[in-house]
Amino acid sequence: MQRQILLLAACCIGLSTAVAADKVGPAPNGITLPAGYKDWRVISVSSRTDNNTMRVILGNDVAIAAAREGRINPWPNGAILGKVVWKSDKDKHWEKAVVPGNLVHAEFMTKDSKKYASTGGWGYARWLGLDQKPYGKDANFANECVACHTPVKGQDWVYTRPARFP
Amino acid sequence: MQRQILLLAACCIGLSTAVAADKVGPAPNGITLPAGYKDWRVISVSSRTDNNTMRVILGNDVAIAAAREGRINPWPNGAILGKVVWKSDKDKHWEKAVVPGNLVHAEFMTKDSKKYASTGGWGYARWLGLDQKPYGKDANFANECVACHTPVKGQDWVYTRPARFP
Questions:
Q1: Distance from CA of residue B46 to its chain's centroid?
Q2: Which of A82, B8, B13, B72 is the most buried (most CB within 10 A)?
């Protein structure tokens, strides 16, 4: 009985903190949340001291193959990069360690040099918080993304460089 | 021809910076490098300001299921946690961003409450650098790991708490 209560509790926690991907609305430019992105493999990690965040950068199969083979300038069509971003928090047990706190958002860049030609060949989308609210009032939100990515136009608009794995 | 030279160059770079998992020697306690760990899914990320490093924490299928279902105190037998650790570096294009620099090591905790009873139910192993040199002079190296993990004995000897995903 205790086990059943525990399972029920675990189930309720799941329901209250996450929304199924197919229930999440599209971004204002029509891009939908990539299914199964939480199972994608790692390209890199990064943190920012200007807004106290840390993140993991994931890739779909096309992006992972490109990252491992060094085909990233340009990235191939079909590549999707996903960033999951958390507020940085202190580790309770290691004073000088920084760990993920609250989730900020998950954001994606989808490469399609024709379809997204007006935004540098990448389709941008972002979903805020655990309830994954689509970011942006209308499709023009992507101009904000492009502006921020302009310093890395020379590396196909992508900040992330694949981390070196053994 | 130019394309062939480029492919050959890419191949040589691959050979010079990574060693195939089956060519990597075991840790002094006999633990072997988990095959395919670079394809494992993400449990969390962390960084340390005391030694200027950042890392991703990956899990095998048993660990990922446990992390997602909240079965982490204790973690189930068969769970393996992998940490890939890099020196922290500055992003060239975003002054306040921190990104992975040189690889430091990949290290693992394997849960087997009987086999590794003498080290808290976890088998420890670490491989240094891109050439994945096993860490430790002899099997006693694990005492060092246990000492460092003693502050988190109450959470089954594991520092990492699964990051909140949407």
A1: 12
A2: A82
Containing A22, the helix (H) or strand (E) segment is none
d(CA A107, CA B122): 35
User: Mutate which of A12, A47, A107 to disrupt the B interface (most B C-beta within 10 Å)?
Assistant: A47
Tell me: the pLDDT tens digits for B117-139?
999 999 999 999 999 999 999 99
Question: Residue B33 corresponds to which amino acid?
Answer: L
Nearest to A70 among B10, B100, B165 (CB): B10
Domain interval for residue B26 = 2-155
Residues 6+ apart with CB under 8 A from A79: A59, A60, A62, A63, A66, A110, A111
**CB pair distance less than 8 Å for B94 and A130:** no
The answer as to whether B116 is a domain residue is yes
ipTM of the complex: 0.88
Q: How many domains does chain A have?
A: 1
Instruction: State pTM to two decimals.
Output: 0.88
Residue B84 lies in a domain: yes
Q: How far is CA A51 from the centre of its chain?
A: 16
